[in-house]
Structure formats: C-alpha cells, structure tokens
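Review form for a predicted model. The reviewer records the input and the model, then writes brief findings.
Reviewer: anonymous (R2)
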Amino acid sequence: MTDPETPSDHRVDEPPPVALSDLQWLSLQRGVAVGMVLTSVAVLLLAPQILDVPLVPAALFAVALALTWWHPRGAAIAIGVLATLWLVTQVVTIRALLPDLARPQDTALFVITLAMLIVPTAGAVALVGMLRRSSGHIATIVLQGTGLVLLAGALAGVVAGAVVEDTPPPVSKAPTVTLAGNAYEPNEVTIRAGDSVTWVWEDGAVQHDVVADAFRSAIQADGTYRHAFEEPGTYAYRCTLHPRMTGTVTVIATDAANS
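Model under review:
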C-alpha cells in the first residue's frame, strides 16, 4: 500500500520566493514604474499641449508594476527594459528637452522633464544591477539619489520662479524669434502694444509653424512670419508639428512700458 502524496508546501499561484538583494532591486523598480506612471499623469494634467503624453509607455509600466506581485524578478527586469528604451528615446530627442531643462522657473514643466530623464535612468541602473545580481545596498542608494535629485530640481524650480516673478521682463521694440533646433529662440518676448514680432525659420529642411488662438503662420521650412500685437495680454503659441516647441509673447500697455 502506497503512502498518500504529501501536499506541496507552496500553492501553485504563489509567487516564488525572492532573495533579499533582489527584493531591494524590486522595490526600486516598483518605484520607477510608479514614477513613470505619475509623470505621465502630470504631463496629461499640466502640459498636454507642450509635451507628448506617453500613454502607451505609462500603460506598459502599469502592467509591469502589477506583474511584480506574481513574477517579481521577471517583471522587474521588464520594467528595467522599458526604462532603458524610454531613456534612449529621450537621449535621441535631447535637443527638444534642453529648452525645458534650461528654464527651471517653469517649475512644473522643469520637474516633469527632469523626471522623464532621471526616473528611467534609475530603472536602467536597476536592470544592470539585477542582471549582475549586485548588492541590494546599491539599489537603496540609487532610490535615495533619485529622490534627492527630483527634490533638488523642484526646489530649484520654486526658487527660480520666485526670482523671475520679481524681475520685470525686458521690453523689446521689434524682437526676432529664430526657429532652430526644434525650438523658438528666444521663446519668451515682451513688447509694447502696437509692436510686432518676427519669426525667422533657420532649421534647415525641418518644417515648423507658429500657431496661437489669435494668429497662425503657414507650415514652412524657411522664410519669415510677422505679426503685430495691438491688445495687451499674454499670447501662447506653439508648433503644431512639434508639440514641445512653445513660446509666449507678452504684450504690455504703452503707458505701463513707459512707467
């Protein structure tokens, strides 16, 4: 007579045990996935017309995050791969990101852009750490370092914003804005009511336009476009072909400019 089979110590649907070092890397990758999803939400809420909303990457990060409770190591590695691919795309388009990183006074946009670079960098480092089975202590250092960089960026943005608010903008008589490197330079100008702004295309064969609620240029790769601003106010404009390209014309009343 045979003995009955001994019941298994682990249920089939339970995840396999995770080593302590892998658990620390797993925590870092969960933080990366949460950070990327939150960054996507921030783009959607705060800057949908300025930055491309990464809905597909956000969905992939969310799925991989959920899978970390069923297949911890495999899902964490998947998060690292997604983060690395995202980082590569950001590095390729770094010229479009530089104007946002160069304006810490635009606190929300600055922190979002910084997060889109720093958070996936942490994920890429974690991928290497997991594949090499490095010490989990390194994962803790990377997680803390990422948080400190983002916090420092937010503080720098707040301080820069406060300084800019206290500094009156210089008034230009007839400013020229150059379109080059997928950016408007300068991207902020201040003029008196009745003055004009001229946009000059100098981006090779790359086509751009200048579009706002009150004016619109043609889509072109060279030439100029000029618009006169008669009413005081703030006029935000953008390139419809490159959502990261944005600019602002601030028009002040003549008596205010002379005061």
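Findings: Helices lie at 20-46, 55-67, 72-92, 94-101, 107-131, 136-166, 254-258.
Further findings: The chain is about 50% helix and 15% strand.
Recommendation: see findings above.
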